[in-house]
Amino acid sequence: MNTAQERRRAWDGYWASGALHSCAGSFDGNYGGAIASFWRETFMHLQPGERVLDLACGNGPLGRLLLECRDDASIGCDAVDLATPSPRWLSEMPAAQAARLRFHGGVAAESLPFDDGRFALVTSQYGLEYTDLARSVAELQRVLRRPGRIALLVHHAGSRPVALAHDEITHLDWLGAEDGLLDSVARIVPLVDRAQTPQGRAALAQDASAERQRQHFNSLQQALSRRAEASICPDVLYEVRDAAARLFALAGGSGSSAALEGLGRLRRHLMDSRIRLEDLCRCALDADGVAALSQRLAPAARTAELHESGHLMGWTLVATLPG
């Protein structure tokens, strides 16, 4: 079981990479198509002077869509996340537009720093389901004015993102297994370093253990190619294959120590990826789960499955809390 500190570190590092949203492996840039249409329709009902609260905002894909589709300077958004957002795109916006969106890092949805009835609309995209729903929904309802609207997109247990996550987890486990590819890279790095001198190459030519390590690495590379061909989400396999080539080049140019330090960073990066993917799979909701969330939000909340390019992408939940 990963600790809360490990999970927060994993998400902090992810957002610091500049990813706009939590499905960066599925979509380049911001969401489009049916997902963007759902949010544009939601935002079109905002009235002048109203403010939006975006929960578990990541690097602000919803805030960005809001600024793009509603140019009314009186409509603003507060975006909160337990991790630390790093929205690089915000610096590219005109100052007057950027000022409409306020990011609040290190803020839990279960304990919001806002007054009662502050917001006309509360949103969350692939975020609220990661929280303690008993507490976060109560906070959501507290800061929402009456009448007020709620619009959510949450992970579906049978969705494409969940299937991709499960597939990638199997690859991460294979890569990190004992005597697996990462271990093999660690053993090859010193051999590459030794091969930088004529004496080293001559010694390696007589080293049966080194030859076994080379053959083992080559067999793992072939296995990687087979896995990738059969996978619905092979990206991490190709990324590690390319990273191994860079580490060998580093070993040849700067020595074993530098390359092994780089391998350590790669292992930590992959471990953090696994933590995030486990979070996604654990928090995705089946039909009973989304029904329970809907009932908790508001008795009249409406739920629907959302599809994008032929793939099931999640549940939408829309509710109005009456005055």
UniProtKB/TrEMBL annotation:
Entry keyword Methyltransferase: yes
Cross-referenced InterPro entries: Methyltransf_25, SAM-dependent_MTases_sf
Domain Methyltransferase: 52-148
GO annotation, biological process: methylation
Gene Ontology molecular function: methyltransferase activity
Keyword Methyltransferase: yes
Protein keywords: Methyltransferase, Transferase
Protein name listed in UniProt: Methyltransferase family protein
